[in-house]
Design brief:
single chain, Rossmann fold, alpha/beta, 299 residues, seven-stranded parallel sheet, two-stranded parallel sheet
Length: 299
């Protein structure tokens, strides 16, 4: 089976590519390497250095290996970038997804679109389900929701494609962590806590998330791509083990023997995120790795 993975040099994408290659799939990766690392891409996969906004780069990616499945992960990520680079976030995430849907339709490929819990914005009612409304602050206050809105629009585009006969599935990975996760100013929470000294907690740290081990999530991603499912099926691939960012910082602080400091909160940061995972019964998937085990494995 031929598989095209956009963003396949990034954190989630590279782990997915590894698993696809291990099971014998012919894999092509399309990535601009702006955030991903070439060294993370399996030598058994073909890497096309390109931009998902550019149709010519898509043509190179499908030229010799017309895909049976497209896993579309490529996006501008990193919470710090959502407000500061809102124009780029929307451009890449929306226009890249339009191209992905059109290529999937043209080649007859099944497509898995990777959305995000950010697509719900500041929704307070938990758990977040496929029936939950999305709630976004007025954009004159901040542009944090450039990312969430771009993923919301991506889901609209995917469901519209389904109405017109395409086989598209949607995955919302929930606060995934593990090896290769980017840290630094534009990184994700666990890696930033593992790299910084002291650990910086945004706001009061009482905002909660459900951290999910990468190996568990990759299992779910493969099932969504492989299983015979109704087009348009949508899955929250996440743990339901809820923890505040302050408590997470305390765990990592103790393991690393370093201090915690508080800094300015992110614009529009959700106070709580808990995914509804009922739909995962369709693929027989639950997150199995506890946060305690996952953090120890990562360390």
């Amino acid at each position: 089976m031929n598989v095209l993975v956009t963003g396949g040099a990034g954190f989630l994408g590279s782990h997915l590519v590894d698993r696809l290659v291990e099971r014998g799939n012919d894999v092509v990766v399309l990535d601009d390497l702006s955030r991903g690392e070439e060294s993370h891409v399996s030598k058994s996969a073909k890497l096309i250095h390109g931009d998902v906004r550019v149709l010519e780069d898509w043509e190179l990616a499908i030229k010799s290996n017309p895909p049976d499945i497209i896993h579309h992960l490529a996006a501008i990520n990193g919470t710090n970038r959502f407000h500061n680079e809102a124009d780029l976030v929307v451009d890449v995430n929306v226009n890249g997804t339009i191209n992905a849907i059109n290529i999937a339709k043209r080649t007859g490929a099944r497509m898995v679109f990777y959305s995000s819990p950010e697509a719900f914005g500041e929704q307070h009612n938990m758990p977040l389900s496929n029936s939950s409304n999305s709630v976004f602050s007025p954009p004159f206050k901040h542009q944090r929701h450039s990312y969430g809105v771009s993923k919301y629009l991506g889901e609209i585009l995917c469901q519209f494609a389904v109405r017109n006969g395409s086989d598209v599935r949607i995955v919302r990975p929930c606060n995934v962590y593990g090896p290769r996760l980017k840290g630094g100013i534009n990184g994700q929470v666990v890696s930033k806590m593992l790299e910084s000294d002291p650990i910086m907690v945004h706001g009061d740290g009482l905002q909660t998330r459900c951290m999910t081990w990468v190996g568990d999530v990759i299992d779910g991603m493969l099932r969504v791509g492989d299983y015979d499912l109704p087009p348009g099926s949508t899955f929250n691939l996440g743990s339901t083990e809820e923890i505040s960012m302050l408590d997470l910082a305390k765990i990592i602080s103790k393991k690393r023997s370093i201090e915690i400091e508080f800094c300015e909160p992110y614009h529009g940061d959700s106070k709580r995120r808990l995914p509804d995972v009922e739909n995962n019964n369709l693929i027989g998937w639950l997150a199995e790795t506890s946060l305690h085990v996952g953090i120890n494995q990562l360390l």
